[in-house]
TrEMBL record:
EC number: 2.4.2.-
The species this protein was found in: Adineta steineri
Every PARP catalytic domain range: 709-935
Coiled coil: none
Subcellular location: Chromosome; Cytoplasm, Cytosol; Nucleus, Nucleolus
Domain PARP-type as annotated: residue spans: 8-90, 103-192
Gene3D superfamilies reported for this sequence: 2.20.25.630, 3.90.228.10, BRCT domain (3.40.50.10190), Poly(ADP-ribose) polymerase, regulatory domain (1.20.142.10), Zinc finger, PARP-type (3.30.1740.10)
Gene Ontology CC, one term: chromosome
Catalytic activity: L-histidyl-[protein] + NAD(+) = N(tele)-(ADP-D-ribosyl)-L-histidyl-[protein] + nicotinamide + H(+); L-aspartyl-[protein] + NAD(+) = 4-O-(ADP-D-ribosyl)-L-aspartyl-[protein] + nicotinamide; NAD(+) + (ADP-D-ribosyl)n-acceptor = nicotinamide + (ADP-D-ribosyl)n+1-acceptor + H(+); L-seryl-[protein] + NAD(+) = O-(ADP-D-ribosyl)-L-seryl-[protein] + nicotinamide + H(+)
First-listed, main subcellular location of the protein, grouped into a coarse class: nucleus
Keyword hit for Transmembrane: no
GO function terms (MF aspect): DNA binding; NAD+ poly-ADP-ribosyltransferase activity; NAD+-protein mono-ADP-ribosyltransferase activity; nucleotidyltransferase activity; zinc ion binding
Protein name: Poly [ADP-ribose] polymerase
Enzyme type, top EC level: transferase
Length: 935
């Protein structure tokens, strides 16, 4: 059969404006809407005709979800609803009272219809059977058509045509005379009527086939084997293959983490064996002999499926009062009217004003002179194929459609009508995966805090956090709560099971969460353990040594700080009292501590990595679990760089990672971690999680009721002396010059302003640094990091990535990296216009003799040449050596303006300095810097 595009589509309605083609009533926003794609009379593309779900399935009978575009983008529970509807349609009632409209029987009305099987004419007033065709050119233009067959031809081809019903399944069956009804029943009901289900199951077992559920599926499986041979096991996992309308797919598991994704249209076969005792008993099998043949499959072109944020393809409805409704406009150049007046006119006509020229702009108003002059904005407009029209456009649209006026008044030699341009963009672009900005209140609660009681948190979604606490065994200290995860890329499920003591009303169900009441503690624990076993395949008594079971949830290792002797309520009470006490810290240091321990900043950092804070409360994943995630990323790096790994093995490792580190992709599907850039991004994410874990744990430990300000308590935990430096001092001015001089020319998106400068003396750092004190070549160099990392940096020093972490992202191996250009390091602060404050370090680094490199290389302390103590990545731009200065201690400050280094063979823009021993580092200064993005 020829390849065709899918003619069906499903999505969540984006507004209340669409109407059902069948019942003419509106389709509510966010509800299902199904479409049959038909050709537009206005342009050479197809447009959707929308239906309610029930109206759609009353009109169309489908037998597989794979032919519905957009199905994979639906939520899992909604996918299951549609699968069930399709299964109900394909598994017809045995009494045959409900006909399947996709298949029809009638008496031929003329001699003109031709059989699609034998291609001979069908004689008038003889039986003819049809299958609805939804994919032919005519069907896509005008709706489904009938493909007619002789009775005998249809019967021979019924498996290829996807028919597995009984005679009564045909629409029109009741209109036939008794004789022809009997004729149809004799043809189609033999397997269903004469062969018991136990025999069909026995045949499948004897031939090592998958035991499917449902009568229709059972008959389909046996019929497929009889017609084409028994299916060999999956070549990738040895699992069972089953027929799936457009192909054969595997139902097995590649590993305990991942379903096997193997599918094929030409499966390996073997003879279907029927024992003599069954042949002799049932007439249908008596003369059966296996003949090798291939099954002809329906071909579906699989285009990239878009997340359902695409706009309607058709041109916005024309309204003479608001003709610009749905259009975005922008101006370029000097116009005859004042732009303020034009803006008001456009708004009155229903349009939207855009300040910048980008792909969201539909129309640009300019002049012919401006077109001839040309400028950067017009280049952008041409790049996006945006129409440029004259001011007359705003008058003419009062009497004609915008699309017609656009073409009539077009000034540019480029331009595609907006609705067509958007359609082309959506239908041809590759989907570029981005961090999901979908933070619907339905999925992400406003309040994501967890109240700890007796060492464990009550799920706030339950509404019981104020009135109950989690059950804890006083003897074993076992806490009867579990967070379970099950991720398989297209599927991301979480399950929370908990036993709580509660006073008040219970027995309610909210969403997919249920609360049950037990009179006896033992009964509650037994049900908890049974549910845990059912969901995970593990016994609760295994005490944390759990194994992942295929198609089961995996218990996450959550650290609720149950070993602390104080709970959140006690901490809050102490904080409220102690905040009234005067701090011993200077105001600038107090502000710095506020910045370093800002919980909201920690949350925003995690959200920027798509971390799901509803499943992984801040600071609650254990360090052990994070180290396991590192190991999986290392495994993925090996699989990717190896080049010979299968996609399935990469999906398997991705599933493991997403199970350990819960992510929130909104309605988007999880991203397969199949390239080095993604591995680097996730490695950075784990780095930040570990740093945030350090900072957050500092906020929650060692509180007592001593009369001390909370900021002073946090300050002590940093194990550092932090002294502010006077802005009018020479020391402050010298650092400002170093910062201003070494701002790189390629980093002009922001300017840097030094707000505060602090001198740092870390506990024990001077002693560790002493062994490197006499080595040559000490330099004062820059290091930048997120503000959320500085609690860990100050309390534990700058650290090298652990052995579990993958090597990707490190140009010169795992070490601590420094720069002599301030903006090179400032980029790693990851500030934004909304959060423009960052922290930088200036460190005395004992570099010694440096191993100079011009390209990326894999180095470590072991691989560094014996006579070298550090690596230098030599950049094309360096600070001018003529402006270098030395401090009284002999430390070089490379504070010259950037000049060309005359080393064209280098792949680096700027110098990088790497040490592989943290004892070579002494933090000297901490800078609180404002990033000015105003230009």
């Amino acid at each position: 059969m020829s390849t065709v595009e899918s003619s069906f589509r499903v999505e969540y309605a984006k507004s209340n404006r669409s109407k059902c083609k069948n019942c003419s009533s509106k389709i509510d926003k966010d509800s299902f809407r199904f479409a049959i794609m038909v050709y537009s009379s206005k342009f050479g593309g197809r447009v959707p005709t929308w239906y309610h779900m029930n109206c759609f399935f009353n009109k169309v009978k489908l037998i597989d979800v794979n032919i519905i575009k957009g199905f994979d983008d639906l939520r899992w529970e909604d996918q299951e609803k549609i699968r069930q509807i399709i299964q109900d349609n394909s598994t017809m009632p045995l009494d045959g009272n409900i006909p399947n409209d996709s298949f029809t029987v009638e008496y031929a009305k003329s001699n003109r219809s031709k059989c699609h099987g034998c291609e001979l004419l069908i004689v008038k007033e003889t039986l003819r059977l049809s299958r609805k065709n939804y994919t032919s050119k005519r069907a896509r233009c005008y709706g489904p058509t009938d493909d007619w067959y002789h009775l005998q031809c249809f019967h021979q081809m019924k498996k290829d045509l996807g028919f597995s019903g009984v005679a009564q399944s045909f629409a029109g069956f009741v209109d036939l005379n008794d004789e022809d009804q009997m004729k149809l029943q004799d043809k189609f009901d033999i397997l269903r009527k004469d062969i018991p289900h136990d025999i069909l199951k026995e045949l499948l077992e004897l031939n090592s086939q998958k035991l499917v559920s449902g009568e229709s599926n059972l008959i389909e499986a046996v019929a497929d084997c009889m017609a084409f041979g028994a299916l060999e096991s999956c070549p990738e996992c040895n699992g069972y293959l089953i027929f799936n309308y457009t192909n054969y797919r595997c139902t097995g598991n590649l590993t305990e983490w991942t379903n096997c994704s193997y599918s094929t249209q030409i499966a390996n076969r073997k003879p279907f064996e029927i024992p003599d005792k069954i042949k002799n008993k049932y007439e249908l099998f008596e003369n059966y002999t296996y003949t090798k043949r291939n099954r002809i499959m329906t071909q579906i072109i699989k285009k990239p499926l878009l997340i359902n944020t695409t706009a309607e393809i058709s041109e916005p409805d024309y309204d003479c009062k608001l003709p610009l409704n749905g259009y975005s406009l922008a101006f370029i150049g000097r116009l005859s009217k004042r732009k303020r007046s034009l803006r008001k006119q456009i708004k009155e006509l229903g349009g939207t004003i855009m300040k910048n020229i980008n792909k969201k702009v539909d129309i640009i108003i300019s002049t012919q002179d401006q077109i001839q002059k040309g400028d950067k904005k017009l280049d952008i407009a041409q790049n996006f194929n945006i129409h440029v029209v004259s001011e007359q456009f705003l008058k003419d649209i009062l009497t004609d459609r915008p699309s017609i006026v656009m073409e009539k008044l077009k000034l540019s030699n480029w331009g595609i009508l907006p609705h067509i341009r958007k359609h082309q963009t959506y239908s041809t672009r590759k989907i570029k995966r981005k961090s999901s900005n979908f933070r619907s209140k339905r999925f992400l609660p406003d309040k994501m805090t967890m109240k700890l009681k007796d060492g464990a948190a009550v799920d706030p979604d339950s509404g019981l956090e104020e009135t109950c606490h989690v059950l804890k065994d006083s003897k074993t200290s076992d806490i009867f709560t579990a967070v379970l995860a099950w991720v398989d890329i297209t599927l991301e499920l979480f399950f929370v099971v908990v036993v709580v003591f509660f006073k008040g009303r219970t027995g309610t169900t909210f969403g997919s969460k249920k609360i049950d009441e037990f009179d006896d503690e033992t009964d509650a624990i037994n049900i908890f353990q049974e549910l845990f076993l059912d969901k995970t395949g593990n016994e609760w008594k295994n005490g944390g040594k759990y194994k992942k079971i295929a198609k089961k949830y995996y218990p996450l290792e959550i650290d609720y700080g149950q070993h602390n002797n104080i709970n959140n309520d006690q901490i809050q009470k102490i904080l409220e009292n102690n905040y009234k006490i005067q701090s011993n810290l200077s105001p600038s240091v107090q502000d710095l501590i506020h910045l370093i321990f800002n919980v909201e900043t920690m949350k925003q950092t995690l959200l920027s990595f798509d971390i799901d804070l509803t499943k992984m409360p801040l600071g609650k994943l254990s360090k052990n679990q994070l180290n396991n995630a590192y190991q999986i990323l290392t495994q993925l790096q090996i699989l990717i760089t190896n080049g010979s790994s299968t996609k399935t093995s990469i999906i398997d490792a991705s599933n493991q990672f997403y199970t350990l580190i819960p992510h929130d992709f909104g309605l988007n599907k999880a991203i397969i971690l199949d390239n080095i850039d993604l591995i680097q991004n996730k490695t950075e994410m784990i780095d930040n999680l570990l740093e945030i874990e350090i900072a957050y744990s500092m906020l929650k430990t060692n509180f007592d009721e001593e009369k001390e300000h909370p900021l002073d308590i946090h300050y002590k935990k940093l194990k550092s002396i932090i002294e502010p430096i006077d802005p009018i001092s020479d020391e402050f001015k010298q650092i400002v010059n170093y910062m201003n001089n070494t701002h790189a020319s390629t980093h002009k998106q922001y300017k840097l302003k030094l707000k505060n400068l602090f001198k740092i003396k870390r506990e024990n750092e001077e002693e560790n640094f002493q062994k490197w004190k006499n080595i040559q070549n000490h330099q004062l160099l820059w290091h930048g990091s997120r503000t959320t990392n500085f609690a860990g940096i100050l309390s534990q020093g700058l650290r090298i990535a652990p052995p579990e972490a993958p090597m990707t992202g490190y140009m010169f191996g795992k070490g601590v990296y420094f720069a002599d250009m301030v903006s090179k390091s400032a980029n790693y602060c990851f500030t934004t216009r909304e959060s423009p404050e960052g922290l930088l370090l200036l460190c005395e680094v004992a570099l010694g003799k440096m191993y100079e490199c011009y390209q990326a290389t894999s180095l470590s302390a072991d691989k560094l040449p014996q006579d070298k103590q550090a690596t230098k990545g030599c950049g094309q731009t360096i600070p001018d050596p003529k402006e270098h200065i030395y401090t009284d201690e002999g430390i070089l400050i490379p504070m010259g303006h950037g000049i060309n280094a005359n080393i064209p063979q280098s792949s680096l823009l700027y110098n990088e300095y790497i040490v592989y021993n943290t004892d070579q580092i002494k933090i000297k200064y901490l800078l609180r810097v404002e990033f000015d993005y105003s230009d």
